[in-house]
Specification:
By secondary structure, the protein is mainly alpha-helical. The chain has one domain. It is built from four helices and no strands. α2 crosses α3.
Amino acid sequence: MSEPYVLRNYLLYKLYSSYFPGKNMATMMRQFYRIVLDFFYIKFILSVRSMQGEIDQQVVMKTIASLSEKTMHNNTIDARMDAAIDKINGGDDLSCLLLIG
């Protein structure tokens, strides 16, 4: 991708818009996990899309908008994602660091 700043800007937006880490320090690692997970999903989807053709800023923006529609505008997604994370990592929120690589 020729515009790597787009993903960086999205990550900064997620940090600021979620008021990370917020007032509840007890859930700070879970909040971080969710931010890393969103970033991982975007990078994964873009990787798959890159096998079909060139990735430009428009494709990145559409991908982010589509994911945001599913995650930010859904009342049950937080509870479902937390349940899935707990099932996968057994309470070890540091395991999200494996998704960054």
